[in-house]
Specification:
Elements (H helix, E strand, L loop, with lengths): L2 H15 L4 E6 L7 E2 L2 E5 L3 E6 L7 E3 L22 E5 L6 E5 L12 E7 L3 H4 L4 E4 L7 E5 L2 H9 L15 E3 L8 E2 L3 H8 L4 H11 L1 E3 L10 H7 L2 H4 L6
Parallel strand pairs: 1-4, 3-8
Antiparallel strand pairs: 1-2, 4-6, 5-7, 7-8, 9-10, 9-13, 10-11, 11-12
Bound molecules: 2-acetamido-2-deoxy-beta-D-glucopyranose (4 copies).
Length: about 240
């Protein structure tokens, strides 16, 4: 086989392995002014499928979290799209995309807003296993966030460094069984309340970064398997798990 043919086969198989995922968000679920879930993790090329299930709504892109004004050149579904679906394909490879319902006072008065956290196509490969670990006193629980060790040091000195530049993803994890079997997941709100006095993700992440112990990648930690990452990237569990 010629080198070009081999290269073609390698490239073709690489492309085939990146499969776009569909992330469904219910708009107006239970006839309430809400997006469920209001936050999803999605990679470039993935589809965020807004399913209009109740009430009168639309989905409009905003420039920042909680902003109730349409962003210039942002996307817009129109009122209750005829098929009951508005499917948005993620066209960026990093950052955040914010949206809201632009009908009546749904955004201003009911906080009908949400966001897309753009992740890599290959979470396990992308998430460098550098963590900040936090063990509450008198507890067997262990919580951590994936973060950039250098940025952690910068943030500790200068709190104006944006948190999104410090963490690799805006989520809190816990290890089960003292971390012995390498299984990780998302802690419940109750567990966070008990350990941190709050279940607000942003506040908990700040406490972990401030007080936790930094573990660099490839030191003392096995990289979690892709299966673990699929589990922790479970959106229905990670719901509400953001927003800066
Ligand atoms: C809200 O979004 C509009 C439109 O993109 C922008 O002009 C405005 O500055 C934003 N407001 C805030 C507080 O970010
Ligand atoms: C949008 O995506 C959903 C879920 O995959 C699918 O059922 C629906 O047919 C799609 N609608 C359009 C208009 O593409
Ligand atoms: C919307 O958010 C504001 C500010 O966080 C809060 O005061 C208010 O209670 C929220 N409203 C609803 C309906 O959740
Ligand atoms: C995600 O979490 C929910 C609730 O814990 C569970 O019912 C569902 O099976 C999980 N999905 C995956 C793909 O793990």
């Amino acid at each position: 086989m010629s080198r070009a043919v081999v290269l073609f086969i390698i490239l073709a198989s690489l492309t085939a392995s990146v499969i776009a995922e569909v992330h469904v968000i219910s708009v107006g679920q239970d006839n309430k002014n809400q997006f469920v879930p209001n936050t999803v993790n999605a990679a470039k090329g993935d589809v965020v499928a807004f399913n209009f299930v109740g009430g009168q709504h639309d989905v409009v892109q905003a420039s920042s979290y909680g902003n109730c004004s349409k962003m210039a050149n942002g996307f817009e579904s129109g009122l209750n799209p005829s098929s009951n679906w508005y499917n948005y394909t993620v066209d960026k490879s990093s950052g955040r995309i914010w949206f809201f319902c632009n009908v009546f006072i749904h955004c201003k008065n009911f906080n009908m807003t949400g966001g897309i956290i753009i992740t890599s196509n290959a979470p396990a490969a992308h998430l460098d296993d550098s963590r900040v670990l936090f063990k509450p006193k008198n507890s067997r629980d262990e919580f951590f966030v994936y973060a950039d060790p250098d940025m952690v040091q910068q943030w500790r000195k200068d709190k104006t460094v944006p948190l999104v530049n410090v963490v690799q993803c805006f989520e809190i994890f816990e290890t089960y069984n003292g971390g012995k079997d390498g299984i990780i997941g998302h802690p419940s709100k109750q567990k966070l309340e008990n350990a941190f006095g709050t279940s607000d993700n942003q506040e908990v992440i700040q406490q972990i970064i401030q007080e936790g112990v930094v573990h660099n990648a490839h030191k003392g930690h096995e990289r979690p398997t892709l299966k673990d990452h699929k589990a922790v990237m479970n959106e229905s569990r990670g719901r509400g798990a953001t927003t800066n």
